[in-house]
Amino acid sequence: MRESTWVSLLLLLLLPAPQWGGPQDGRREPEPEAEHGPLQPFDLLYASGVAAYYSGDYERAVRDLEAALRSHRRRLDIRTRCARHCAARRPLVQPGSGPGAELPFFRALLARASCSRSCQSQRLGGPASRHRVSEDVRSDFQRRVPYNYLQRAYIKLNQLEKAMEAAHTFFMANPEHMEMQQNIEDYRETAGVEAIQLVDREARPHMESYNAGVKHYEADDFEAAIKYFEQALREYYNEDVACRALCEGPQRFEEYEYLGYKGGLYEAIADHYMQVLVCQHECVRELATRPGRLSPIENFLPLHYDYLQFAYYRVGEYVKALECAKAYLMFHPDDEDVLDNVDYYESLLDDSIDPESIEAREDLTAFVKRHNLESELIKSAAEGLGFLYSEPNYWISYGERQDENRVPLGVNTEGAEVHGLSMGKKSLPKIGRDLREGGPLLYENITFVYNSEQLNGTQRVLLDNVLSEEQCRELHSVASGIMLVGDGYRGKTSPHTPNEKFEGATVLKALKFGYEGRVPLKSARLFYDISEKARKIVESYFMLNSTLYFSYTHMVCRTALSGQQDRRNDLSHPIHADNCLLDPEANECWKEPPAYTFRDYSALLYMNDDFEGGEFIFTEIDAKTVTASIKPKCGRMISFSSGGENPHGVKAVTRGQRCAVALWFTLDPLYREVERIQADEVIAILDQEQHGKHGLNINPRDEL
Ligand SMILES: *[C@@H]1O[C@H](CO)[C@@H](O)[C@H](O)[C@H]1NC(C)=O
Ligand SMILES: *[C@@H]1O[C@H](CO)[C@@H](O)[C@H](O)[C@H]1NC(C)=O
Ligand SMILES: *[C@@H]1O[C@H](CO)[C@@H](O)[C@H](O)[C@H]1NC(C)=O
Q1: Do residues 481 and 577 both lie within one domain?
Q2: What is the pTM of this model?
Q3: What is the domain range of residue 373?
Q4: Which residues contact 228 (CB under 8 A, 6 or more apart)?
Q5: Which of 112, 174, 407, 572 counts the most CB atoms within 10 A of its CB?
Q6: 84: annotated active-site residue
Q7: What are the TM regions of this chain, as residue ranges (predicted)?
Q8: Residue 365 and residue 325 share a domain
Q9: Closest ligand 2 atom to Cα of 468
């Protein structure tokens, strides 16, 4: 019976506890939302929705949660509009010279402030300060937690499609949440809505259009590709305005809080302004970052112009192709392929057009100009005010350009080639690739245990002594150190099972903690170093021809909760595949989003064995028949290809704590985890400033 199946699945999922007080904390209730009345603050609506959820009033939970989401969205919109409006209405002016010369500037500044204030309070129907919310609530909205409550509430009301939408929206920003993926499949089946296109209610238009552009481009439909990329660019620049407006919100002066902040006029302005400016400068990363990810898509904005130059060329619009190619060169002036293209496009122009007169596109020129001015300003301020800043490479582009799409032109072009981009064409399914194994293990002490055959599958390997006892202890203590201090997972039950606690830390976070002296820096670096060691071994053992890149690295500990271990029949981590959605009934693994389709190899590196249960298992595609079982221990590493050929899971941990470093790799440089680059940046800073303690250059919006 379906109903009981998904009801029990729902029970498996523990709701995160509301962090700002439960149902009975006596907060005032928000008035029901009036169409034209003042906007209700979203934190009040959210609290009320969650309280209603726990009291079993699902209609009200849905009403208030939906209202909270609307209010949240509307507030962002109001801030953006007001920032735009006041920037236009109240321009800042240059100070003159002589006594009182600064007054016109400050007059303009004050006028801007009062414009912003009256604009916002008018549209919000009350003072903007009413809408300031705690960090926790902000972070919940950023992580889309309200959708987690919503999906359950909709289920209780038997509104399956809405539940599915909410679940999908949550899952897009929390892709590690395997259970949600299962829910979506279950809802789909229960509702019999096979064909329904899952809607991400928080989709960011510029990314949607970009993806649509890529899709059409890959299908050689260049007219449509142009339409979508152009739309993506318009949306990108709009989003950029919104992102920058949000940066103009209140700032925190954490470092000074305990001292009682007492900056003088110029210091206080400088402190605040620098935070705003750095935040705005970082919008480049923010806009290129997919929901739920720490790291941006590499080279995101330039890629728009790269695709466009080729697409315009293909539809015969050579002037536009040139404008876009030249725009791309503003980011990467030495890109030979695009330089060639420029020459070639110029040769195609009508004689009446002077090639020199065609410049890089205006939208981008203005953007880059401002971006460069900001860089300069931040760098010189850093020097003058004594903080540490190293400019990230925002347009970094790794690996070779994908040139499978080289298009040899027709007869009259004397062998000219035009270079476009191709991303999708090479990612053949695993089966299509030449599978090999048995390459050198590179490091002297590693012992080979089992190959694929001995592990009863394909592309699997088990190795021992990848870490020494001492390294295991050291890593384990990093794990404990970080988890003691706590992060988003602290004290929470596992996303996979309510009978265990689940805690994790990324390399970047470990380094940050090391930098702050909360865990030994040397140990944090060990985490960074051993993940690189693992990467090299996997790349070598499976004899991969191209570079294997990090896709995600995560240290995870699962701790059995005492008193909840009797007659457990659930797994610590349900059976799944890493790059496709396992569909045991159909004997298929669907390689499509929201699975991480770009992951190619996975590895787990263990650091302890003082726990019960927690075996790693491979199964058949039926997700039931166990084909191999591995007991973790210090220094043991299991690695395998990430596809449907390797469904796997973790058996229940019934006593103690099981810690491991989970690593996912990709062969596609486009999906290389840029968090790794940030970690590299941190390492560079550490080397540079071994003994000092300075501000860390990390995007403040990263969820560290
Ligand atoms: C890897 O490279 C070797 C020699 O360079 C080549 O023979 C082989 O076909 C390549 N394998 C794959 C999977 O591309
Ligand atoms: C291999 O093991 C020996 C003895 O335990 C140790 O001294 C050496 O550093 C190890 N080598 C590596 C590369 O870990
Ligand atoms: C592989 O399968 C055989 C036969 O079922 C089994 O005895 C063996 O333990 C399996 N290998 C592993 C590593 O679990």
Answers
A1: yes
A2: 0.58
A3: 205-385
A4: 209, 210, 212, 213, 216
A5: 572
A6: no
A7: none
A8: yes
A9: 14
